[in-house]
């Protein structure tokens, strides 16, 4: 499963290239509890197809009725974006499934330009971070490369939203654990690449994972990790892991980890420091034993442990050190 924003934009692009009427809907504000955060997007086509979401489902149903039904108030609209608010009162909040009386404000764009969407998707697919600015008076949109992720901003004149490329996961080593982790990562919005030159370990991977049979350090060089990349070594083999981890630690990857016992993890750090002169600051980025201490034993449980840690890192959540397997008193030693 690819990054949801990219999926929404790519699908909307395809609809507009086919000249199908369609909406781009963005969550611009929320009050109280809300099922989806500010910046969430969905696309809705006149023929009734929808991708993405702005709530738990009830608001999507209402938008579909208002846009797809010829009697709906959005059916014949075009031009300037329109602002919609759901859940102003308790009854309406309950009707639309907004928890705790929450309120959600949406911006609806009518028939975004196909050329602009095509260029936005092209930049995202090339790994660029893109700021999209929408003029609220007429819906005109412009694209600007940006070096940093920024929160959505709307000032009554311009809506500014930043879209990033897909999150990617590079797994060193195939096998059962790699297959479990690749499956979980895919459903968590990562594009997954599994690298293993050993033929015997190249089976059992989910169909959505891309398999590379080169040496991991060479493959990682071609992969070009960026700040939306995580790298996890799963082989226990220094010949496969060490050089690739060295390259990963020198990159912008937001997460670099390796499985192994505490003893093996310490030996790995000593090798990287002694033989490759990896500075302590870089070594501090290496997570190992990788994952969270949840008593995991089976490959599926270990994959859950690793995936939870990766998602926390992606979301900028700092977990207590006691949760790390390397520090937890009763953490599972198999990872």
TrEMBL record:
Domain XdhC Rossmann: 169-310
InterPro entries in the cross-refs: MoCofactor_Util/Proc, XdhC_CoxI, XdhC_Rossmann_dom
Record domain XdhC- CoxI: where: 15-66
Protein name: XdhC family protein
Species: Caldimonas mangrovi
Lineage: Bacteria, Pseudomonadati, Pseudomonadota, Betaproteobacteria, Burkholderiales
């Amino acid at each position: 499963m690819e990054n949801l924003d990219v999926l929404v934009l790519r699908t909307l692009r395809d609809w507009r290239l086919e000249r199908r009427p369609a909406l781009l809907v963005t969550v611009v504000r929320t009050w109280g509890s809300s099922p989806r955060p500010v910046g969430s997007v969905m696309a809705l086509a006149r023929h009734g197809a929808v991708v993405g979401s702005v709530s738990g489902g009830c608001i999507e149903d209402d938008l579909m009725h208002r846009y797809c039904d010829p009697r709906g108030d959005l059916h014949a609209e075009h031009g300037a974006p329109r602002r919609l608010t759901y859940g102003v009162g308790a009854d309406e909040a309950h009707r639309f499934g907004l928890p705790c009386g929450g309120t959600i404000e949406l911006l609806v764009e009518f028939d975004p330009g196909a050329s602009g969407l095509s260029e936005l998707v092209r930049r995202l697919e090339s790994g660029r971070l893109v700021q999209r600015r929408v003029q609220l008076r007429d819906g005109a949109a412009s694209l600007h490369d940006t070096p940093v992720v920024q929160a959505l901003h709307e000032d009554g004149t311009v809506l500014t939203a930043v879209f990033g490329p897909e999150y990617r996961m590079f797994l060193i080593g195939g096998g059962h654990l790699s297959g479990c982790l690749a499956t979980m990562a895919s459903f968590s919005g990562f594009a997954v690449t599994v690298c293993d030159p050993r033929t015997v370990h190249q089976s059992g991977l989910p169909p959505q994972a891309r398999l590379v049979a080169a040496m991991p350090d060479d493959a990682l060089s071609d992969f070009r990790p960026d700040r939306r990349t995580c790298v996890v070594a799963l082989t226990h083999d220094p010949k496969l892991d060490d050089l690739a981890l060295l390259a990963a630690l020198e990159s912008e990857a937001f997460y670099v980890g390796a499985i192994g016992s505490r003893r093996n993890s310490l030996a790995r750090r000593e090798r990287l420091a002694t033989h490759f002169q990896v500075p302590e600051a870089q070594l501090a980025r290496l997570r190992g034993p990788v994952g969270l201490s949840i008593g995991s034993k089976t490959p599926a449980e270990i994959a859950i442990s690793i995936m939870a840690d990766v998602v926390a890192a992606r979301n900028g959540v700092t977990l207590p050190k006691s949760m790390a397997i390397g520090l937890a008193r009763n953490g599972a030693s198999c990872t």
